[in-house]
Amino acid sequence: MIRVALDAMGGDHAPKAPVKGALLAVQELQEISISLVGQKELIEQELSRIKSEDFDDDNIHIVDAREIISGEDNPTQAIREKKDSSLVKAMNLLKDNQVEAVVSAGNTGAFMAGGLLKLGRLANIKRPALAPVFPAFDGNGTVVLDVGATMDPKPEHLKDFAIMGSVYAEKVLGRERPRVGLINVGEEAGKGNQLTKESYSLLETAPINFCGNVEARELLSGDFDVVVCEGFMGNVLLKFMEGIGKGLFGTMKDEFTADFKSKLGAWMLKPRMKSLKSRFDYNEYGGAPFLGVNGILVKSHGSSNETAIKNAIVRQVYHFVNNEVLTAFSQEIEKGVETDE
Questions:
Q1: pLDDT of the residue at 19
Q2: Sequence-distant (≥ 6) Cβ neighbours of residue 283 within 8 angstroms
């Protein structure tokens, strides 16, 4: 049985989305047991409402937590002071080996701070990385790390990111011999600043399928399975992508509803538009794993719906546990250390 602690109070649609997502997850995979961590009465109310829809909740449990870490809270301070919060209690369950993973759509900073303070880092990994999957035009998506956990990394940190990203892409996303690239201002090996130049040399000898530099305009091409960058750049790319996606689909909606002919055309194109939107839907992947910490942590988007929560569990946590990804991280990082000696 794979046991998961789910922060039922985290996210814009809590507790409805986490509760319903949990029920969808156990309905899809019977070998999963989920502890919904949060205010018991609110979770029970949501469960009572959803039970009428014939969900099987035999593997659903409630862990009462009275406090909530909001988006306005200072991340580190909240983890230290709000000991009865849903996120802290979920992290403690993982720390005490009562579950194998934690999933949350709550405060990202608190999620990362909690992971480091409660769990610590894996052996030989000096810095953690947040690794979302960016949509790609081939429909598969590209793992980008880091997007904000480590703002001022050293070249050896980017090497660790590349190794972890490659293992994740292979064992969780099912990519065979993942193609790894380094974000840079040009494709040539000598391009970039000191960080990227030194990182390039390390990645060439790392135990990965390193395919060289990748310019930002090629990020969504599908030519790379994993792309590595420092956290500041990664976070800017992530927010830019979110803004482009929101603006693009909003503009398309306005154009398709402008007049009768536009509405008719939109009706005819509706199946294709749904297919297009699904390629860029973060709900399909469920969340971004926080790699490098001594535990399985998946951070779902703040506006995640029940599908995203379900997918964070069945498409991320399930494969993390079954494929022993944390062990693989340590083994491959150790190989990388040997190449430096």
A1: 96
A2: 301, 304, 305, 307, 308, 311
The residues near 184 (Cβ < 8 Å, ≥ 6 apart) are: 191, 192, 196, 200, 213, 214, 215
Euclidean distance between CA atoms 305 and 322, whole angstroms: 25
Give the CA distances from residue 267 to residues 24, 105, 272, 278, in Å, rounded to whole numbers and listed in that order: 30, 34, 10, 17
Strands in the chain per DSSP E = 2-7, 32-38, 60-64, 101-104, 129-130, 133-134, 142-145, 179-183, 209-214, 226-228, 288-291, 296-299
Nearest to 105 by CA among 86, 131, 118: 86
Write down all domains in the chain, each with its CATH number in brackets.
Answer: 1-125+292-341 (3.40.718.10), 130-284 (3.40.718.10)
Determine contact, residues 158/204, Cβ cutoff 8 Å.
no
Tens digits of per-residue pLDDT, 244-281? 767 766 676 766 677 777 667 667 666 766 666 666 66
What lies within 8 Å, CB to CB, of 217 at 6+ separation is: none
State residue 191's pLDDT score: 84
Report d(CA 181, CA 316) in Å as an integer.
Answer: 22
Q: What is the DSSP letter of 67?
A: B
Please list, in sequence order, all residues whose beta carbon lies within 8 angstroms of the beta carbon of residue 49, skipping any fewer than 6 positions away: none
**Residue closest to 135 by CA, chosen among 220, 215, 216, 217:** 220
CA-to-CA distance for 153 and 7, rounded, in angstroms? 30
CA quadruple 308, 309, 314, 316: dihedral positive or negative?
Answer: positive
Instruction: State both tokens at 71.
Output: 């988006």
Under 8 Å between Cβ of 103 and 312: yes
Are 313 and 21 in contact by the 8 Å Cβ rule? The answer is yes
How many Å apart are CA 100 and CA 285, to the nearest integer? 19
**Structure-model confidence comparison of residues 192 and 9, the more confident one:** 9
pLDDT in tens, 178-191: 999 999 998 888 88
Place of tokens 């839907």: 281
C-alpha to C-alpha distance for 192 and 186, rounded to whole angstroms: 7
Say how far residue 246 (Cα) sits from the centre of its chain. Answer: 19
